Amino acid sequence: KLPPGPPGLPIVGNLLEIPTKQMFLKFDEWAKKYGDLYTVNVAGKKIVVLSSAKSSGDVLDRKSGATSGRPRFVMAGEIMCHNLLYMFMSPGEQWRRLRRVTHEGFNIRACQAYYPFQEQEAANLVRSIMAEPTDLGQKLKHATAAATWRSLYSGPSLTEEDEAKVCGIDNVGETVLGASMPMAFLVDVIPAMKMLPNWMAGWKAWGEEWFRESGRFFHGLLDDGKQQKKGVEHHVGFIASTAPSFKKFGVTEQEAAWTAGGLFIAGVETSGATLHYFIQAMVLNPEVCRAAQKHVDSVVGNRPPTFDDRDQLPYVVAVVKETIRWRPVAALGVPHVADEDLEYRGYVIPKGTQIIGNIWSIAHDPAYFPYPEQFQPSRFIDSSGNIKEPFPNYHDDIVAFGAGRRVCPGRDFANNMLFIDMAYLLWAFDFELARNEMGTSMPDTMKFDDHGLIILPVEFPCVVKPRRNDLGELLGDM
Ligand code: HEM
């Protein structure tokens, strides 16, 4: 009674057809062939794939009470994090408490407290590119890391010691997200291997040591966050401002330390990679870049942009939306699991079945986004110049942040950061294709650096030139 899908082979099903890298492209190909609701069989394990705003909205949003489970992440979630990262948790009482406490610190109103951190780090990003316009991917990631760090732990600014911690936490993130990749560790294929004693399973001893070290690190950060009550002006970060809620929701020290660390891990690479795709889009679409720059100049002139300008900058908001539609970095989201048997369109999705919201295919659905590979921010603007909703009947417009009860809790924070960083970059720089002796060198936009849950652009050559002579002065002491 499951929806039909690619036929596959006996026993292994579709296993051998699924590439370990850029899996989303195979899922997109199948969506074109089998439609917006199909089942994949991975060696007997069934995965239902939802590839339209309608099917994802129906199943993950409207039936979210029954579709918010997570599969087991044995290595990443259980061994390395002792079930303390709620991204990997089943939706029980603990997950609800930790989501609630996150909501206190990251809801749309609370996120305003982080504007000064995000504005200052956007200015620092411009400074760092001005000083050396190379290695953009790393600089963009550093900018999102610094703004997220300060918003979580309320640092007035990053000291050298903090910089070392930012890198440390970033490495922690890369390691655990890497371990969550399907088939990164055999124990995720054969969970019984978890019972092996450490002396027989070096990977398990390593995972447990990683847990102890990361725990110490996260606890240290929590203590710093509690002490630094003041950030920029009177603004404080998540830890300091949410501390009373930790008590209210019965969140332990250990849970608080891992929740803050988990927010950092989930937020930095996603946002940094999105900014990198934005630059790729600007390089490849100079007319869009010029239109956006004209728009920014007409509103802010020679001073740097601020969040107060956002209402007058709908085209920049549309550029943010188009970037995360064009290149949704979590192309297949994070898998959900049916917590009970579900009926949908005459099929039955049994309890325990994995469900994937195929974000890439939804964001590239030509029914909603004609010529989906083209980068056209104007598709998010209505005839009166206001922002418009692409799926008014089915789904939240920002599919890139997932769906239902598991929808990304950092989406408002991320949208703010993307807006201010893009506004600053448009205000400050021109972006051009790099030239070599053969002419200009075009980046291959369908090549990705696959980090498991996240796809990054492959570094591409590009020339960045300041648009204003006195840029450093204009930034002042921001
Ligand atoms: C462009 C930036 C971002 C993108 C595209 C993104 C995307 C996503 C997606 C697709 C999911 C899975 C949702 C689902 O299961 O349906 C997710 C979950 C999550 N995101 Fe984000 N995210 C971004 C930034 C952030 C930021 C800045 C934070 C924190 C400050 C954050 C924290 C989280 C957490 C904690 C989860 C797990 C939620 C749960 O399992 O209950 N994300 N994100």
TrEMBL record:
It is found in: Membrane. Heme binds at C408. GO terms for cellular component: membrane. Its cofactor is heme. Keywords: Heme, Iron, Membrane, Metal-binding, Monooxygenase, Oxidoreductase, Signal, Transmembrane, Transmembrane helix. InterPro entries: Cyt_P450 (IPR001128), Cyt_P450_CS (IPR017972), Cyt_P450_E_grp-I (IPR002401), Cyt_P450_sf (IPR036396), Cytochrome_P450_fung (IPR050364). Pfam families: p450 (PF00067). Belongs to the cytochrome P450 family. This is Cytochrome P450. It comes from Dacryopinax primogenitus (strain DJM 731) (Brown rot fungus). The lineage of its organism: Eukaryota, Fungi, Dikarya, Basidiomycota, Agaricomycotina.
